[in-house]
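pinging the channel bc i need a second pair of eyes. not urgent but kinda urgent?? the chain im working w is below, pasted from the shared doc
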Amino acid sequence: MAQLLRNFRGLRTFSLPISRHFSAAKETEIELEYLKGDKEGIAVVALNRPSAKNAFSQSLVNKLIDSVDALWHDKNCRVVVLRSLVPGAFCTGADLKERSKMTPEEVVRFVKKLRGMLTQIEQLPMPVIAAVDGFALGGGLEMALACDIRCASADAKMGLVETRLAIIPGAGGTQRLPRTVSPSLAKELIFTAKVFNGTEAKEMGICTHTVPQNDTKDAAYQRALQIATEILPNGPVGVRMAKKAINNGIQVDINTGFAIEEACYAQVMPTTDRLEGLKAFAEKRKPVYKGE
């Protein structure tokens, strides 16, 4: 991946200060943090493999799988924010140094595991927001595409660049990108291995929010936190069922989609949260939802 990055000499070089979270001496690879105070209910999954710009190694993927599994079983988590602690890089895709030492069979197994991990992120019951600062190339962009909402700094650099290496996106990119933009545009981006910035990503509909980079180089993360905070007051069961209805519905015909919506609506009817919402409205106060 280092060689791939050198191919982008025409792009503006990132020169970012080291975050207070960043430690060159120790790589935690993945940090899972549960926020407190007025942000309680938000979990932050942070990639922290600075030596390889968060490239997907077997170790990093295994730790991501563990973190996602923990979130799956956490009923108190209402929103997940996926970010990087490495300046200048969200995720640069596969660890090509590690991959060059693999047999073809090992590569196939690894890509299958990576694809499954991204599907698990996509299918998390709560909303997942990607905060893209810096490079999100290949598998890095595929990971962002697996999230529900994407925020990017204006100078982030994104692209499904696999054809430059004579391969194709293998962790869901050929399927998720055409569902995010038009199939024709997705083909152009993949065939040409185009690298685009955050502003262009917003114009194409790949990102829902693009923000100017700030002095601390975490503008996308701050925007993602703002969105997560706006989701928090709403009924968690309702939010989860809305996500399920949308994710499952867009894969089928509209009449089947209506049936999925009806089934998801039926699951919110017997909840105490629904009754609390009605009661709070009548009493002109903010509802206190418990996810029950």
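so The longest helix spans residues 104-122. and Residues 1-25 have pLDDT under 50 and may be disordered. — does that match what u expected or am i reading it wrong
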